[in-house]
Amino acid sequence: MQGKKTELSESDCAIARSLDVIGDWWSLLIVRDARSGKRRFSEFQRNLGLAKNILTTRLKKLVEREILEMAPASDGSAFKEYVLTEKGEKLFVVIVALWQWGEQTCFEPGEMRFTLADNELGETLAPLEVRTQSGRKLGALDFRMIEREIASESKS
Amino acid sequence: MQGKKTELSESDCAIARSLDVIGDWWSLLIVRDARSGKRRFSEFQRNLGLAKNILTTRLKKLVEREILEMAPASDGSAFKEYVLTEKGEKLFVVIVALWQWGEQTCFEPGEMRFTLADNELGETLAPLEVRTQSGRKLGALDFRMIEREIASESKS
DNA sequence: CCGTATCCATTCCGATACTG
DNA sequence: CAGTATCGGAATGGATACGG
What is the pLDDT of chain B when averaged over all its residues? Predict the structure, then answer.
């Protein structure tokens, strides 16, 4: 984030690349707010309580990386709004994963205050599960990274 | 990570709390390596290519936050090893989420090199899916955070 | 209202040197 | 091997003042 890690951003590791994009303190929180419908500079600023120059920096980076894109204001004003791209929307899985981990491990028993629920019926979310293609559920240590040997989807 | 955001770490938001723990550049990569079986200081250092003092700081923080714990060396040497706690192991869902997002969006078409596969049969992992308790699959915008109204699990 | 520019404190990072 | 100590540079972060 700060110094360099330029090498790591160019790493083969998808995690390293992801972290290069959203691995700083504010970016994912901005995505969280954008996902929940916030669009305006001042909405982010007020809600997150961060300095305006930092917000500017983050928004620019997120637009550069194609997580957000600028759109004309929906209320007809002259200003722009920031909306998630498709790439940005896909981060919702990461958001849910972080959310669930945080709720499980970062709160005292009586302390939890919010939860995630679906818009339609208000049903709470099920814990994410890691499964193989065939549906077997995996634990934390049950998988590893391998050199790509994915069955080619087409045989020319 | 840097300045303060002390307020946000104390936030009600589980994401903010999670990010306070693993929201910096190196921590999650250390967890990634620990999950894949790395235990020794030098293994992390060599593999990640970060400065030793930074690694020291990160390991300390991760031990403090109970993501890692110290264990006597398995080879009988006088040194310690770092192994994931249960809390730390639970981060594997976050790791998978970031991995999958990175692979989907941060690589050029011909560029992917690694993939995640289960240890037993070498089967690749299925994309994570966000579902409600009843099993309905949700998209990026289909849920929101609400004040906790979870049905109490016990009625005293 | 939406930023940009500037200033300053803190932190992070990398490199190096040093200890046990 | 496993750190600790220190240094300097870069980036982050907060606050504020300023322009469109």
Answer: 87
Choose the mutation target among A8, A57, A106 for the interface with B, i.e. most B CBs under 10 Å. Answer: A106
Structure confidence at residue B8 (pLDDT): 57
Q: Do A17 and B107 touch (CB under 8 A)?
A: yes
Do residue B134 and residue A113 have CB atoms under 8 angstroms apart?
no
pTM: 0.91
Would you call B78 helix, strand, or coil by DSSP? coil
Summarised one tens digit per residue, pLDDT across range B123-149 is 999 999 999 999 999 999 999 999 775
Neighbours of A136 (CB within 10 A): 14
Residue B33 sits at the chain A interface (C-beta within 8 Å): no
Q: Residue A24: what pLDDT?
A: 81
| Chain B residues within an 8 Å CB radius of A114 | 12-14, 145-148
pLDDT of res. A23:
82
Q: Where are the alpha helices (DSSP H) in chain A?
A: 6-9, 14-22, 27-35, 41-48, 52-64, 86-89, 92-105
pLDDT of B29 > 90? The answer is yes
Question: What is the SS3 assignment for B142?
Answer: coil
Closest CA to A130 of A97, A155, A152, A98: A97
Partner A, chain B 54-83, Cβ-Cβ below 8 Å: none
Q: Which residue type, as a one-letter code, is found at position B38?
A: K
Count the Cβ atoms, other than its own, within 10 Å of residue B49: 11
Per-residue pLDDT reduced to its tens digit, A90-132:
999 999 999 999 999 999 888 877 899 999 999 999 999 999 9
Six token digits for residue B39: 């235990």
Q: Residue B132's closest CA among A4, A117, A84, A55?
A: A117
Flag whether pLDDT at A144 surpasses 50.
yes
Task: Please report the residues numbered 89 through 148 in chain B whose beta carbons come closer than 8 angstroms to any beta carbon of chain A.
Answer: 89-107, 112-126, 128-136, 138-148
